[in-house]
């Protein structure tokens, strides 16, 4: 209703003849001059008319500007009731108001003493733009006030769809990440089980070699020579089994510490640790079967253990 009333107001003003329009603008100019110009009423009539004539033109054009700024603002408020984007509201309000300004100028062509001028239409259009700018500022202020008061901005359908899509993608990423983590934990569990099997075999080896002092043990060397295991050799066998057990436990511990998103790189590192562990086992067996003294054998096996742990630490530190 307000929009229709505003359009009728513009139509009635444009329907005034040139004389009627001049009288209205002249009367308004006289009141402004009387209020703002000191000593205006003391001037002669000719001087007053000259001043009013100079003021009438900018007043009429300012009236054009303001009345169409009001039209675009009212049009924006009416379009705001429709569920369209903010940019679309501005475009519709601008097109409507600018076209009505063009029709208003064309209407003046048929009024006595009035004319249709491009300049007036450009002034009207400038007023339309300023009116929409004013509406935009009001919208920003109102939204800020609502947010400060704890109000929640109403989301458009497109925004809700985009937000739901984003949340769904994040959930899928988290699910995939959890699946990868579970798979990695399962692989590590399998590796730990293999290490536990190694430890169990070593314990059985220690128990098998844990023979009383009165019993003799027969040991077959790599060359196929069968020889009797003395107490000294029994002790070295037990000590070697302990060293290998410690290496296996250390390997399992360092493998459990490592974690990486690069699965190929992680598996390669674990393989290096297993290879080093097997190398230590071979070295320990070689040391046991060597001709060195018991003290030297123990020292060599301890050195192998420390070297292996140092290798494990360097490998794990990369993750």
Rg to the nearest angstrom?
49 Å
pLDDT averaged residue by residue: 80
> How many E strands?
2
Give the helix proportion (percent range).
over 70%
* Termini Cα gap: 72 Å
Largest sheet: 2 strands, antiparallel
Helix segment tally: 9
The SS-based structural class is mainly alpha
Q: Which regions contain 5 or more consecutive residues with pLDDT less than 50?
A: 210-230
Strand order of the largest sheet: 1-2
Q: What overall geometry do the principal axes of the alpha carbons give?
A: rod-shaped
Strand content: under 5%
Q: State the order of secondary-structure elements, H for helix, E for strand.
A: HHHHHHEEHHH
Describe this structure in words.
The structure is a single chain. The protein is mostly helical. It is built from nine helices and two strands; from the N terminus they run H-H-H-H-H-H-E-E-H-H-H. The chain has helices at 2-14, 18-36, 45-79, 86-108, 118-148, 157-209, 231-257, 263-288, 294-316, and strands at residues 217-220, 226-229. The protein has a two-stranded antiparallel ribbon. Helix 4 (86-108) runs antiparallel to helix 5 (118-148). The longest helix is centred in the middle third of the chain and has 53 residues, at 157-209. The chain is rod-shaped, with a radius of gyration of 49 Å. It starts with a helix and ends with a helix. Residues 210-230 have low confidence and may be disordered.
């Amino acid at each position: 209703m307000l929009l229709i009333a505003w359009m009728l107001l513009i139509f009635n003003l444009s329907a005034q003849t040139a004389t009627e329009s001049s009288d209205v603008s002249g009367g308004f100019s006289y009141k402004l001059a009387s209020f703002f110009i000191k000593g205006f009423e003391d001037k002669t009539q000719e001087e007053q008319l000259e001043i009013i004539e100079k003021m009438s033109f900018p007043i009429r054009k300012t009236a054009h500007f303001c009345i169409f700024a009001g039209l675009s603002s009212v049009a924006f408020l009416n379009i705001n009731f429709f569920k369209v984007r903010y940019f679309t509201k501005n475009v519709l309000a601008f097109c409507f108001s600018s076209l009505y300004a063009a029709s208003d100028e064309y209407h003046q062509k048929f009024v006595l003493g009035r004319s249709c001028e491009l300049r007036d239409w450009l002034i009207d259009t400038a007023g339309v733009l300023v009116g929409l700018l004013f509406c935009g500022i009001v919208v920003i202020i109102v939204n800020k006030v609502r947010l400060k008061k704890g109000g929640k901005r109403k989301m458009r359908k497109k925004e809700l769809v985009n937000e739901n899509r984003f949340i769904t993608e994040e959930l899928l990423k988290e699910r995939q990440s959890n699946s990868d983590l579970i798979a990695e934990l399962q692989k590590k569990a399998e590796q730990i089980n293999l290490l536990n099997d190694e430890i169990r075999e070593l314990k059985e080896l220690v128990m098998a070699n844990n023979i009383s002092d009165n019993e003799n043990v027969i040991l077959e060397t790599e060359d196929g020579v069968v020889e009797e295991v003395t107490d000294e050799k029994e002790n070295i066998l037990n000590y070697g089994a302990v060293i290998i057990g410690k290496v296996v436990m250390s390997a399992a511990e360092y493998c459990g510490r490592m974690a990486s998103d690069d699965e190929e790189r992680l598996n390669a590192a674990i393989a290096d640790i297993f290879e080093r562990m097997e190398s230590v086992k071979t070295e320990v067996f070689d040391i046991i079967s060597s001709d060195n003294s018991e003290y030297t054998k123990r020292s060599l096996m301890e050195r192998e253990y420390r070297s292996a742990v140092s290798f494990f630490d360097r490998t794990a530190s990369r993750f």
